[in-house]
Amino acid sequence: MIKALIFDVDGTLWDSTPVVANGWNRAIAETEGCHVVITPQVLRREFGQPMDVIADHLFGEIADMGKRQALLDKCCLYEHQLLKEHQADISYPGMGDGMKSLAEQYSLYIVSNCQCGYIELVMEKNRITPLIQDFECFGNTGTCKGETIRILMERNGISKHEAVYIGDTQGDREAALMAGIPFIFVEYGFGQDVEAAVSVRAFGELGDAVKKLDAQNR
What we know:
The chain is of the alpha/beta class. It has helices at about 15-30, 40-45, 50-60, 65-85, 95-105, 120-125, 140, 145-155, 170-180, 205-215; strands spanning about 5, 105-110, 130-135, 165, 185, 200.
């Protein structure tokens, strides 16, 4: 029986890409030798991958790995500052109330390929910190998302039969497969045509989706 819901962040809980793009372009403008322009669409294609992979894709014209990492660090710094200052709600419709409702029935967790501090900011901005039992990210583990999910599950004593990963990309699906747990695809996010046993069109459908998945696995 499913007891633990493990969530992806970007494309699943909220869409921060317009704000993040502004921060990254600010960092790029201060970096010599980099001329890429970051748009929300570019980030939606990249988000979900480990941060070092994103840096390789977007900042490949910078051959010096130390300089590339320094740019990525500055991007993360500016995005954090702008997101903290941003006042508008960028969560998906129904996310806040939906998380409260799900927390009454399940233990909620977050696993993302983001940098350290990002999940904490997401929880703070969306006022869901008290609802989340634990979280983990690439910034802490340095491993792929599937392995990071396993680390969180082992730390919390969650068996493969008790958990489901909820995300919006093919990478999220592959991470769930690697961790040995089912995957629920949210169609409203960044990915398209991702194969999943169960999918939802809106955040408010997740409760019924988990029950459907439970019934399929009996």
